Every structure is written in C-alpha cells, then in structure tokens.
Amino acid sequence: MELRQIQLIVETYFDLKINVKSRRRDIVDARKMYFGLCKNFTNYGLVQMGYSLNKNHATALYNIVSCKDLRQTDIDFDRKYLALYKKISFLQSNKWKPKTYTLPKVIHPGILRHADKKSIRKIFNKRRSITKQRYELH
C-alpha cells in the first residue's frame, strides 16, 4: 500500500484535506490516524511519511505516538481508527481484486506448416516482396 492511497482513504472517510496547515481537532485527529496507518501498512521511514504531508520527521513521530495514546484513551478515536484499519487491510488483501483468467496459448499455423523446413525467425520475418538493388538505396 502506498502513502498516497492511504491519504486518499483517510481524506474520503473524514471528507477533508489532511495536508493543510490547521489545528482544528478533526483535521489533527485525521492526520494522526494517517501517520498511524502509514506506520502499520507501509515500510516507509519517518522522513518519507512526513514529506508526504509537507511535515518533518519529528511531526510524523509525534503523531504516531499520540495516535497510539489516543487509541487507548479515546473510544471514538479508536472506533474511527479501527474502521479505517479494516478498510485498508481489506483493500490490501487479494479479496477485492477481480479474478484473472489466463487464455490458452495460441500456436500460429505457420509454425506447424513450416516447422521442419524453416526456422521460426524466417517464417515471421516480414520481408519486402521486391528487394531493392544496391544503387537504389542511395
């Protein structure tokens, strides 16, 4: 899962932008959940996580720690975090992806017809019917 995908999921869940410079409680909580989810679902470092929202690594670390603390104390925050966690883990699993079907390999009839006489490269090489003479090339 990529950082941008997690950011879009969090922004659509809360219906707000999390990379704006604001101290409103709903934006701050959404940003904390974003950093906590990025820590759980990606292998990116603090610098890359902070850079994804135009913040620095210390902000990312602080939000990860405070997300963990808020989950233990605030029931509403924990409920929202778990809803996002389930949504991302479902998208990360293979259950939502459509089934892929493999088509049988088709053998070109030219291979069967000329298999013992010519090489495959000569069969499929598209040559001109009339070759140009040397003096016509210049």
Structure explained in plain terms:
The structure is a single chain. This protein has 8 helices and no strands. The chain has a domain at 3-92: DnaA protein, C-terminal DNA-binding domain (Chromosomal Replication Initiator Protein Dnaa, Chain: A, Orthogonal Bundle), CATH 1.10.1750. The relative contact order is 0.11. The model has no long low-confidence stretch (mean pLDDT 83). It is mostly helical and 138 residues long. The protein has helices at residues 3-14, 25-41, 46-52, 57-73, 75-92, 109-113, 120-124, 134-137.
Task: Label this structure with key terms.
62% helix, mainly alpha, 8 helices, Chromosomal Replication Initiator Protein Dnaa, Chain: A
Spans of at least 5 consecutive residues with low confidence:
none
- The CATH class of the domain at 3-92 is identified as Mainly Alpha
Order of helices and strands: HHHHHHHH
Question: Given the structure, what is the number of helices?
Answer: 8
Query: Main beta sheet, described?
Result: none
N- and C-termini, Cα separation = 57 Å
Radius of gyration: 29 Å
Q: SS-based structural class?
A: mainly alpha
How is the secondary structure organized here?
Elements: H1 3-14, H2 25-41, H3 46-52, H4 57-73, H5 75-92, H6 109-113, H7 120-124, H8 134-137
Helix pairs in contact: 1-2, 2-4, 2-5, 3-4, 4-5
